[in-house]
Amino acid sequence: KNSQYFMHNDKTSKGIIFTCNENYNCYWFNKAKMLAYSIDKYFDTENFEDHLLLDKKIKEHLDKNLPILFFYNEPSSLIGKYISQINVIKEPEFNELCNNQIIELVENIKLNKLPNINSNKYCASKVKKIDLVKLSTKDWIKNNAEIGSFLNKYFLSLSDVNNLLYNYIYKFNGDINITTNYFLKNNNSWHNWVNIDAKDNIILKLND
């Protein structure tokens, strides 16, 4: 209802939410969620042919401290760079029923059944979290027990990955070695991935 604070579509006078290209599933899921949350009454979407153009538009607004609404996937170097300026809009926790309804709504939109849709019958929620599954053959894990132990313990939060990507892309210009050293010196999460001797050796090397 506060769409007047954001960029407007000249034809509809609605606010604008920036989103990915319609060739990607994210575009259709975002459209469906707008209907389910009934925010389509106040906002239209603007999508870009190239993801880099979407990034450019978002950066322009954030660098100038202008109000902006946008759909974006994480993890991302862009989110990592601007996280202090971004307020993430909270959605209800993942719900299987709502997720199935959104999939149905996406299909209706693609079939151009939009005018006949009663959005009140649909609900929406966060997307389902995708786990990183680590697999190996039995022979490999038997012969590489230490590496297997490391992989089982390896975990980074979403905010950590955002920050890591930001450092890699923006702060250290794609230099993987500098990024790795910075991470090892400034993030202690890896201490739990290795044994004590390995941890002490790595810290010693970092302080050389």
Q: Could you list some keywords that capture this structure?
A:
single chain; 208 residues; mainly alpha; three-stranded parallel sheet
Question: What does this protein structure show overall?
Answer:
The structure is a single chain. With 208 residues, the chain is mainly alpha-helical. The chain has helices at 25-36, 51-63, 77-82, 96-110, 138-143, 145-153, 158-171, 176-186, 196-206, and strands at 15-19, 43-47, 69-70. The chain has a three-stranded parallel β-sheet with strand order 2-1-3, sandwiched between helices. α1 (25-36) crosses α4.
List the helices and strands and how they pair.
Blueprint: E1 15-19, H1 25-36, E2 43-47, H2 51-63, E3 69-70, H3 77-82, H4 96-110, H5 138-143, H6 145-153, H7 158-171, H8 176-186, H9 196-206
Parallel strand pairs: 1-2, 1-3
Helix pairs in contact: 1-4
Radius of gyration: 22 Å
Series of H and E elements: EHEHEHHHHHHH
Main beta sheet: 3 strands, parallel
* N-end to C-end Cα span: 57 Å
Helix content: 40-55%
Main sheet: strand order: 2-1-3
**Spans of at least 5 consecutive residues with low confidence:** none
Coarse shape: globular
Question: Per DSSP, what share of the residues sits in E-state strands of 2 or more residues?
Answer: 5-15%
Number of strands: 3
What class would the helix/strand composition place it in? mainly alpha
Average predicted confidence as pLDDT:
88
Work out the helix count: 9
